Amino acid sequence: MAAAAEEEEVSGGRPGTGRGNGKGEAEGVLTAPPPPQEPPAAPRLRDTPEDISLEAAANAIALHPARALLAAGDVDGDVYLYGYSCLPGDTQQLWSSGHHLKSCRDVAFSPDGQRLFTVSKDKAIHILTVEDGRLETRIAKAHSAALNCVLPIDQHLLATGDDGGELKVWDLRKGEAILESRQHEEYISAMAVDGNKKILLTASGDGTMGVFNIKRRRFELLSEPQNGDLTSVALLKRGKKVACGCSEGTIYLFNWNGFGATSDRFALRAESVDCMVPITESIVCTGSLDGVIRAVNILPNRVLGCVGQHLGEPIEQLAVTPDGQLLASCAHDQKVKFWDISSLGSMVVDEYRKKKKRGGPLKALTSKAPGSGEDFFADLREEEEATGEAATGSDSDDSD
Predict the structure, then answer these.
(1) Are 252 and 244 in contact (CB under 8 A)?
(2) pLDDT at 355
(3) Do the strands 283-287 and 176-182 form a parallel or antiparallel pair, or are they unpaired?
(4) CA 97 – CA 107 distance, rounded (Å)
């Protein structure tokens, strides 16, 4: 009996022993609280969004006027919309459109950001909704030649230029062209419009800049031809200056209302100026056949340095975010890259020219731009400013 009682006592458990039934365990054991959990570390922000890899080389890119969205059109005729972010892994494709039959040559957002305009070698203009990429309007055979560039003027007017040198300005409310003019002998490469939406400027492969009056719906004049194709056009100095990039590596400057002849020229030590985008009232970024993106100050004319590169691959187009903090570029390497250009807005260029030692590498202006002479930039020399600023019969006003 004693043994049985002992066995019963052991098996039944005693309060506070922690053995036996769950009731005794719950009531008698003091357990330590779990250690506090540290909150997960926030993802480290990158200086720039991650590169975007495409299935084919992009001819054109555009950045949304208000949101972190990038549109790209490639040589296969496909159009893509991406959301970009400095958070790792947050840059992603939102939609794609394959409506063009041939290479997509240019893309542009409407001023309100709700529509995307695309033009193609197939001679068609497409208007897509930004939200879902739905084809809203298609203007087939908009031109008699392959389309090359597109520029929204305002909410209702759209300009297009083709390979044959013809310009058309469309009234989207009517669905028809209100201005048609073939003044250039070669393709129209780029266009720009003044702040009053009155004067439209065109750059052409025939080396001339065209001037068109949108309000009066007429052609005004052509500039004298330059040496090489004009590839780009931009307004600077609060509209007082117009800069045109040239395939020969020169930037030509015109005074506003003095479009017939150049007022200055600046020869970069570069293979070409294939694309150009204004960053401030005095600074532009240029893309070249050598894959280098240069920052250039206009009046005084200086090459400030290198923003970045697509290693040896020709750059097709550049685009800048509305806040001027990021630059996007596309090239033949099938990549879209982003560059931090926030420091360019605060750069001040002294008009006094310091004699520089020739043979040095381009100054690196971003953390992603190699600044060592031991890399690709070792053979890139500081531009010879004297060559660029010496212009015969210059009548420019260097003031802002």
Answers:
(1) yes
(2) 54
(3) unpaired
(4) 12
Token duo for residue 47: 């200086």
Tokens representing 26?
């719950």
385 and 349 Cβ atoms separated by less than 8 Å: no
Cα–Cα dist 5/172, whole Å: 100
Pairing of strands 104-109, 92-97: unpaired
Instruction: Report the greatest alpha carbon distance in the chain.
Output: 126
Find the helix or strand (DSSP H, E) in which 138 lies.
strand 135-139
Spatial CA neighbour of 117 closest among 180, 195, 64, 53: 64
Residue whose structure tokens are 């022993």: 17
pTM above 0.70, yes or no: yes
Residues 6 or more apart whose CB falls under 8 angstroms from that of 332 comprise 57, 310, 313, 314, 316
Residues 107 and 99: their CA atoms lie apart, in Å, by: 14
- Which residues are paired to 232 by β-bridges? 245
CA–CA dist 282, 296 (Å, integer): 8
23: Cβ–Cβ under 8 A, 6 or more apart, which residues? none
> Based on C-alpha coordinates, what's the Rg of the chain?
30
Sequence-distant (≥ 6) Cβ neighbours of residue 238 within 8 angstroms: 281, 400
Tokens representing 394? 């210059």
Residues 247-306: pLDDT tens digits?
A: 999 999 999 999 999 999 999 989 999 999 999 999 999 999 999 999 999 999 999 999
How many C-beta atoms lie closer than 10 Å to residue 142's C-beta? 20
366 burial via Cβ count (<10 Å: 0-12, 13-18, 19+) = buried
